[in-house]
Design a protein that fits this description.
The protein is α/β, with parallel strands linked by helices and 508 residues long. 36% of the residues lie in helices and 17% in strands. The chain folds into three domains: 174 residues, DHBP synthase (Alpha-Beta Complex); 110 residues, Rossmann fold, CATH 3.40.50.11030; 146 residues, Rossmann fold (3-Layer(aba) Sandwich). Helix 8 links the parallel strand 11 and strand 12. It holds the Pfam family Sua5_C. It is found in: Cytoplasm.
Length: 508
């Protein structure tokens, strides 16, 4: 089958294209089209054989009901019976829009559309292209997401074509969708109404209008032994080809844990992906890193989620690590989709972080212009068994300045550089539980301990590696003195690297 692709502008709809697509649906064919949530795979909702074609094209289980899309509120009465009174107020506020409501079905709706259930799920989309298509098709269009079952839902026509080209009659290309997550599903056949799938419309928004609503307890996590109320939610959905794991904890722990996992994969030669946000993107270095949006506006995350999951398929990664998101408001819908995509695979960030004793190593000298930055740069050349942030500080830094020129000359001769170094003052903020402070001599160590106390990881470099070799101070001396200092530092830092790796092997 050749799949026709027709461009269409929702601000200037081509009626000829809409009529062509409507005729395909009336004849029992399949047309993918944009909605404000995701792209839908349209069929005539009142024809049993059209439903069978939909299931076949998607590879969708036949017990997974299809949502019936309407363009006029009055049409609801033709496909649903015993409609609760609260429906009017919900429809007035949220239709057209990303809300699906479940009712008892009328005889007009075939069981093929409802997955064998006596209920029907109904939505009125707000996208102008979707509504015009529904009208052109006769008023009732069933439309699950237009993707291969289990794959990330499509938010562009290109995504639809990736999955369904050659399997359906037409794709209406209306550009990227606005929301990016499927509609909220609210079951109106129970009291109080129950949310079966979270989306852009939240429980709090419902309760402001109609009072109490309940939430299916199986939506997040896999602890419940009960089956989801919505049949489709029992299947693994939205999944990339790679294994997806959600790293859970407070945000700092999540960042540290993902860094540690990504570094381990890098050392082992494994290609992994990281789902980050605009706020956390700078903290990651290893793996294929993708920005999913900003935590300040979760709508950006929702809009990008499926796109990012699909992009990872093109990157040939074997594992994806994702940060988690607050389970409230739009975050509840985001986490629901992530959980389904991950098959409920989660990692405790705290458990990963606990495995690493030190995360930052700070060398301290008097002015942070020569010996401490030299030691830090030497250590950075080692590919250690764990990742560390390596830096340096000085106890007397009156203003930021570059590294000593003689120190830089020696480093360049060893194919290293301090060209980007700027001296920085040591302060209390540098004393963290997971930071190892290594001073160049005893005087600096004693000054730190006397000023800040003894409850920190503060050692001289010699003391920590168990080597009494004195580190000479070359300040004011010829270039050769800096060379001699470099050689001593190189020997001590080599022992430091070996000790750090041995601590990892011992699990310390």
């Amino acid at each position: 089958m050749e799949t026709k692709i027709r461009k269409i502008d929702k601000n200037q709809i081509d009626e000829t294209v809409i009529r062509e697509a409507g005729d395909i649906l009336k004849a029992g064919g399949l047309v993918a089209f944009p909605t404000e949530t995701v792209y839908g795979l349209g069929a005539d909702a009142l024809k049993e054989e059209a439903a069978l074609k939909t299931y076949a094209a998607k590879g969708r289980p036949s017990d997974n009901p299809l949502i019936v899309h309407i363009a006029e509120y009055e049409d609801l009465k033709k496909i649903a019976v015993n409609i609760p009174a609260e429906t009017d107020i919900l429809a007035a506020h949220f239709w057209p829009g990303p809300l699906t409501m479940i009712f008892e079905k009328s005889a007009a709706v075939p069981y093929g559309t409802t997955g064998g259930l006596d209920t029907v799920a109904v939505r009125m989309p707000s996208d102008p292209v979707a509504r015009e298509l529904i009208r052109a098709a006769g008023g009732f269009v069933s439309a699950p997401s237009a993707n291969t079952s289990g794959r990330p839902s499509p938010t562009t026509a290109e995504h639809v074509a990736e999955d369904l080209d050659g399997k359906i009659d037409m794709i209406l290309d209306g550009g990227a969708v606005d929301i990016g997550l499927e509609s909220t599903i609210l079951d109106m056949t129970v009291t109080p109404p129950m949310i079966l799938r979270p989306g852009a419309i939240t429980a709090e928004m419902f309760e402001e209008l109609i009072g109490e609503v309940s939430v299916d307890e199986t939506l997040l996590g896999d602890e419940s032994k009960k089956a989801p109320k919505a049949p489709g939610m029992k299947y693994r959905h939205y999944a990339p080809r790679a294994k997806l794991l959600i790293v859970e904890g407070d945000l700092r722990e999540e960042i540290l844990a993902i860094r540690q996992l990504a570094y381990a994969a890098h050392r082992e030669g494994r290609r992994i992906g990281v789902i980050a946000t605009a706020e956390t993107l700078p903290f990651y270095k290893y793996g294929v890193i993708k920005n999913i949006g900003t935590r300040e506006n979760e709508k950006t995350i929702a809009r990008s989620l499926y796109r990012v999951l699909r992009e990872f398929d093109e990157e040939d990664v074997e594992t994806i690590y994702s940060e988690s998101f607050a389970v409230q408001g739009m975050g509840k819908a985001i986490m629901n989709r992530l959980e389904k995509a991950a098959g409920h695979l989660r990692i405790s960030a705290a458990a990963v972080v606990k495995q690493q004793r030190y995360r930052r190593i700070t060398f301290v000298s008097r002015t942070d212009s020569a010996r401490a930055p030299m030691a830090a740069e030497i250590l950075r050349q080692y590919e250690l068994k764990q990742e560390y942030v390596v830096d340096s500080r000085g106890l007397v830094v009156l203003f930021p300045e570059p590294a000593n020129q003689k120190a830089e000359a020696i480093m360049k001769s060893a194919r290293m550089t301090l060209g980007d170094h700027v001296s920085r003052q040591f302060g209390e903020e540098n004393l963290q539980e997971d930071t190892l402070i290594l001073t160049i001599d005893e005087n600096q160590k004693n000054k730190i301990l006397s000023e800040y106390g003894t409850g920190y990881n503060v050692y001289t470099l010699n003391e920590f590696v168990g080597d009494s070799t004195e580190i000479p101070d070359p300040y004011g001396q010829p270039l050769t003195a800096y060379g001699e200092c470099f050689e001593v530092l190189r020997g001590l830092v080599k022992k430091l690297a070996e000790k750090l790796d041995s601590l990892v092997e011992e699990g310390l």
